[in-house]
Design a protein that fits this description.
Layout: H1 2-21, E1 26-27, E2 32-39, E3 43-52, E4 58-65, E5 70-74, E6 78-79, E7 84-92, E8 98-108, E9 115-125, H2 127-132, E10 140-142, E11 146-153, E12 157-166, E13 172-179, E14 184-188, E15 192-193, E16 198-206, E17 212-222, E18 229-239
Parallel strand pairs: 2-9, 11-18
Antiparallel strand pairs: 1-3, 3-7, 4-6, 4-8, 5-7, 8-9, 10-12, 12-16, 13-15, 13-17, 14-16, 17-18
Length: 240
């Protein structure tokens, strides 16, 4: 009787855990983007990559911002499990100055994230102060910000090399490389590049346990004041 009761309890707990993991799940490796220093009057844009990490269709019911100076629009409003989309956010700095932080609310059918919040920040300076500041800065440039591995067999380990370059006039420092899942391995050639130097990140995507169309992301964090967080998206279609 005791063993039977223990089994019933364990089955009940497992059922609760599975229920918590089921359903649509919104996820983004990048929840905040810093535009750095921009000149008053500039219109800047950024694409947030969001994906459905659940096992049911995800609905982006509504996307709104906390300020009329900020406009946000998703490319897709319905995402199948493993599918991703971009939410393009535009910020108009006209008539603004100093540090700015604006929020974007994404309303979904994810029961744990019915309101998923993204944000953007920027420091708005006048044209005069920008022209009078002689400072130098690093600037990262990548050959591709997305890569499609195509159709592969489940269990394949897929290699790819992301190449980037410092096109600024100050040393570029890569301070972090983040991945959206443990299925992705990365190896950075160097975390510091002088102006004009090139580097790379060796990437391996392990498709074990995957099925269907999937997308994963990698984020490079650097001291580039205008693009401090570069997002790279990987696509693959996994077949048995």
């Amino acid at each position: 009787m005791i063993k039977k009761n223990i089994f019933v309890v364990l089955l009940f707990v497992a059922t609760i855990v599975n229920a918590q993991l089921a359903g649509p799940k919104i996820y983004s490796l990048e929840k905040e983007h810093d535009f750095g220093q921009i000149v008053e009057g500039a219109l800047v844009t950024h694409d947030f990559e969001v994906l459905n990490n659940g096992d049911a269709e995800l609905y982006l019911i509504k996307v709104s911002s906390t300020c009329g100076c900020t406009v946000a629009k998703p490319e897709k409003e319905k995402l199948q499990p493993g599918e991703s989309t971009k939410i393009r956010v535009s910020f108009n700095s006209s008539s603004r100055s100093g540090r700015q932080k604006k929020y974007i609310n994404v309303f979904t059918n994810d029961q744990e994230n019915t309101r998923y919040r993204l944000s953007i920040t920027a420091i708005v300076v006048s044209k005069e102060s920008k022209n009078n500041s002689p400072g130098t800065s690093a600037k990262i440039s990548v050959e591709e910000n997305q890569h499609n591995f195509g159709t592969v067999k489940e269990g394949s380990v897929l290699p790819w090399v992301l190449k980037f370059k410092n096109i600024g006039d100050a040393p570029l420092l890569i301070t972090d490389v983040q991945k959206s899942c443990g299925c992705t391995a990365t190896l950075l050639s160097s975390n510091e590049l002088q102006p004009g130097e090139s580097g790379n990140v060796k990437i391996e995507l392990d498709t074990k346990g995957m099925k269907g169309k999937k997308s994963r992301t990698i984020a490079l964090t650097s001291n580039d004041p205008f693009n401090p967080r570069m997002i790279i998206t990987l696509f693959v279609d996994v077949q048995k």
